[in-house]
């Protein structure tokens, strides 16, 4: 059924981040971007301007609520269905606390409560949820299930993670980098790890901000070729660089942001031994950082295993993993506000 189209992190302390980014109160800005009623299944479906708007809204909410202590019941009377086929700390906590902080009511549904396409068809599930909630965030195994839910629902469907994409994680990553560097344009992202849903989401969005991407994956663990092809098109259109390699140091060379993720995702436990062998040499260490840019930082969406990144990097002052984790809350709040309301930010738009 068709639908209508429509930061400041703890690492800055108090209000210093707002000053550094030039974020100031002003009259509400009526953006030309209208996201109300849309689905968020993949950042492929969003322009650079639309993604910028969600980050701008994230910074606005974070500053007004966290720094200024304002109460903004923007989702008063709204309800959210949360379908979790896969467990999660950050996705569940950020969504539940964020939606409630804005005055809404989140309802958590596990595989014990709802079996997508098993006890009830996806079509029937979508129609029932549409009649009882205002939006659904679904953390699922298959992207195809999300696509069916979105097709059949009359409310916004948000991808909380699938086998193909993890868009809400990338929004948190970009807000974190925006806060740290002051701008995203021109940054070089160095991915070292699996060709997974996180990398796919970066590939669908980085070039739209003018960011370059250097990705290293082991042989046999490269990203989806169709996504690579589209990412190459984005890079060409936006004048950015996209390079793919099997050499971690080559991907890290000159990179501003070193990024990795788990090598063994939920559902891949039987591949553990094989994967650990394939990813030998992919651990991010200070040796990796030595070839990166002088202002390098590190991101990991968590949970982290020591074989992916050593303690020296993970707990170093260059690591942004904990501000990154917190920003999952502010970005998912911005997503819900942008898809469910006509709210306009009162902070001046940051420089992207």
From TrEMBL:
Enzyme Commission number, as recorded: 2.1.3.3
Gene3D superfamilies per the UniProt record, alphabetical: Aspartate/ornithine carbamoyltransferase (3.40.50.1370)
Subcellular location field: Mitochondrion matrix
Primary localization class, coarse: mitochondrion
Gene this protein is translated from: Otc
SUPFAM superfamilies with a match to the protein in the record: Aspartate/ornithine carbamoyltransferase (SSF53671)
One BP annotation, GO: urea cycle
Family in the record: Belongs to the aspartate/ornithine carbamoyltransferase superfamily. OTCase family.
Functional summary from the UniProt entry: Catalyzes the second step of the urea cycle, the condensation of carbamoyl phosphate with L-ornithine to form L-citrulline. The urea cycle ensures the detoxification of ammonia by converting it to urea for excretion.
Domain Aspartate/ornithine carbamoyltransferase Asp/Orn-binding stretches: 185-338
Nucleus in keyword set: no
Full protein name: Ornithine transcarbamylase, mitochondrial
Residue ranges annotated for the Aspartate/ornithine carbamoyltransferase carbamoyl-P binding domain, each copy included: 38-179
Pfam family, one: OTCace
